[in-house]
Amino acid sequence: MAYLSNSERADGCIFCEAAAANDDEARLIVHRDARAFVLLNRYPYNNGHLLVVPYRHVPSLEDLDDATLTDLMLLSKQSLAVLRAVYQPQGYNMGVNIGPAAGAGVADHVHLHVLPRWGGDTNFMTAIADARVIPEDLGVTWRRLFEAWAQPPPSE
After folding, report:
1. Is residue 6 included in any domain, yes or no?
2. Residue 153 confidence (pLDDT) above 80
3. Annotation says 111 is catalytic
4. Phi, psi of 153 (to 5 degrees)
């Protein structure tokens, strides 16, 4: 996986740079909306680990207007449906890490994690070897989720 061997990190905001780029596949963006977008986590805990990110560069949810907060939650809801259709997870973790003390890897641009889960996905590799096993290449994951997002939602 080439992305693991590239240790250089840009000085700018990875989310702002991804949003401004014209290559959603290279930036792993699976869906764009008016106020926020959804992309794959480049260092996922599991296949399909998504990030829901506002375009607005702010460090905390309280800095966002209500319309953007609403869009973040609606995109999170859509993320659950798309992940369920593609991967059939048995559960999900969702969360926002605000500030470095809370574990935010990108502390200056708030984002929401949507993480599909399966029984047994946290095994000895993670617990003892401090390693993750991701059985699907990010490019394959991106294509599957991008295509699923383009499908009309099922009738309610």
Report:
1. no
2. no
3. yes
4. -65, 155
Q: Which of 31, 109, 111, 113 is catalytic?
A: 111
Domain count, the chain: 1
pLDDT tens digits, 60-114: 999 999 999 999 999 999 999 999 999 999 999 999 999 999 988 899 999 999 9
CATH of the domain at 28: 3.30.428.10
Which two three-digit tokens encode residue 97?
């890490």
Q: Which helix (H) or strand (E) holds 50?
A: strand 50-54
94, part of any domain:
yes
- pTM recorded for the entire structure: 0.86
Residue type, 138: L
Cα separation, 62 vs 154, in Å, equals 33
Its domain, for residue 125, covers: 11-148
Residue 2, in any domain of the structure: no
CA 44/CA 66 separation, integer angstroms: 29
